[in-house]
Amino acid sequence: xxxxxxxxxxxKVGCFAFGGAYGAIPLIRDIVLSYDWLTHEELxxxxxxxxxxxxxxxxxxxTYIGSAQGGLLGSIIATFAVVLPSFLLILLxxxxxxxxxxxxxxxxxxxxxxxxxxxxxxxxxxxxxxAHCFESTAFDIKAAxxxxxxxxxxYALPKLIKKKLSPIILIICSAVLGIIFF
Length: 182
Prior knowledge:
The chain has 182 residues and is mostly helical. It has helices spanning 2-16, 21-34, 40-52, 57-100, 104-133, 141-155, 157-161, 167-181.
C-alpha cells in the first residue's frame, strides 16, 4: 500500500509542481503531511538538506521520503513518480515546439504564470521564516539573528564587493551559523 501511496503522491507533485522546486515546496508539504510520512519539522530539515545536496530538490526529497517510507523500492518509485510527468511533458513540448513557440497566446500564458510562481516562492520563504522564528509561542531570537545575518550577506555584501555572492557561500554560512547558535 505504501508503494501505491508514494507513486500517487509524488505523481501529484510531478504533475502540478510548476515553476521549479521552490514553487513545489508547498505542494510537497501538503502531500507529505497529509500522508503523515514526515512531521513538519522533519520535512523542513529535509528541505534544507535537499537544497544543499547536488541535484534537484524535488528529486532529492522524493528519494529520501520514498526511502524512509518504503526502503530502496520506495525511493525508486517516488523518484520515478516525481520525474515522470516532467519527462513526458518535455517530450511532448519538443515534438510540437516549432508550431507554438511564436504563438502569442502561449507567450502570454507563460508571462502570466511567471508572477504567480514568484508569489508562491516568496510565500514559501515567508512561511518558513515565520515558522522558524516563531516555532512555539515564543520568539526564537537565534533563528531571527541567523536570518538577519543571511539577509545582510545576500543583499549587502554583493554591493560592497561588487560581485554576485555564490549560493554555496550562503549554504556554508548557514551551516556554520547553525552549528554556532544551535
